[in-house]
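Morning. Coffee machine broken again, so started the prediction first thing and wrote up yesterday's gels while waiting. Chain of 552 residues, entered below exactly as on the submission form.
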Amino acid sequence: MKKLIIFLVIIIVIVVGGTYYMGSKIEDKFESMKNSSDFHLKNSEFHRGFMTSNGFIEGQITKDDIIKAVENMNIYSNKEKQLLLKEVNKIELQSIDFRYDFTMKHSPLNGSIEQEGDVKITTPDIATALISVFKTDAPIHIKSNTAINGTHAEFSLKDITEKDAILNGFNITTETTNDKELKEYTFKIGKISMPSINFEIKGLEANSKFDEPIDLKQLFKFAKNYTVNLKIQSINVVNFVKLSDIADSSKVYESDGNIIAQDIFKIATIDADDMKFKDMLIDWNIKFDAKIGENLEKLYKFASEDKDDEFLDIFKQSFKKGASLMIKELSIQNTNGDKLALNLDLSIDGEDFIQGIIDEDKNKFSKAIKFKGSLKSATTIDKLLAPYPKLAQGAPMIMLFGAQYIRPEGNGFSVDFALEGDKFKVNNIEVADTSSIFDAGKNDKTSQKDDAEISKAITNLETLISDFSAYYTSQGKFDKLSNMTNVSLYEIDDTMATLKTKDKSCIKISLDKEHITVIKGDDADDEFCQKIYENKSVKEHLEKPISVKSGF
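Came back before lunch.
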């Protein structure tokens, strides 16, 4: 594995070097390759011809060269850089020797230079390892064309066909200017497969184009004003998840001091655990202050080094404008073509958001975050889930407990939701109070523990009702309470019990033939129990019995 890491470093050096050293004259081109600072020259020859020239370069990449390359990387924090250097220093191999044999074709008519050749690894033990994997000690092929407007370079690997690993069609293509700036690059893999674990990717192609050429040294830093297109023919993960015809198209650009990222992601078919879906779509965009991008390296550095004050100071400077997220459509279809779609519009006021966190001020925080959206389908829930027997079993329960939140719309339904101030509402019904997030931070330890117990009690109550309803739906009748749920109860008899809540009797639950009834317990006047009763869903359960036969 350590030898493979070194080999990959060589690949990176050669790819980057291959796009750098492209001169306009034949001899200049050869001299620039010879004098590369990425390796140590051992020997070289160049034979100039009228239309075709050829030659070779023999060089060496040392362990010190790799260490120097890591030290010069500016995309890592010091902490991560030191960890990487530690791993490099463990490598016993001190150097790797190589030979690059090439041919140059040059035309006096158009001034272009075509160069093509193979890189052979001549360090014996590395060469032996490569032969065992690639069936050759020269697995790297480089082809380039240098013209007046820049250089087109291609880098490819020989195929790997082993029992436990298959790799073919590995190719990287770059387009650079004569000033050695990157305009475009494309990465391709025909197939990568690990049969022993049933993992396979076919037909991967990723392309990035920059509106303005960038310095290669900036490639792995935050970039803006570019487009990315990704295509994958298929992905198979342990025969459990199979995806086909995956496509992603994104654009990042700067406008009025903001960075805007737009993305459209599609999957034609999804086969997961024998459940098939189709035409998944995510169409979304995000906008944030361009200063975040400019300071991304610092933010990452301070976060990884646990420098909270420095991180917060930079974050405050960078997030004044806040951010916004819009999901135009997140949708998926069942095998019958019935679609379930979600949309969301979210905005964050930067100054209130930051100050709300610092001051633990729920009012500022609540004002800072706003969102609204909806979940819709043109068909009913039971028809939407009908193609999936496992999911369809839950349809009656969803319709039963979601009835107050689900609004009929045409032949289907819709669920609107929004965060208004510190109130989260679904179809204008309040279902949560976000202020509790900050209240918990201001309470003492006892209050925090009570809040956790209250939350647990509410969750357990909902689970009880869900378990009892599901049991009734599948069996057509109720059984002894403890036989229908794993929630802890103090059973009074076969049809009535007290929900275990701290050391209080706050809630009792009873069953008859077709109803679940929730009533206040013996400690109903206790302050702790009163807090449970304040919850919106608990209030509704206490008001009237729940009919397990009612539907949507």
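Confidence is low (pLDDT under 50) at residues 12-24, 440-445. Going to sketch it on the whiteboard this afternoon.
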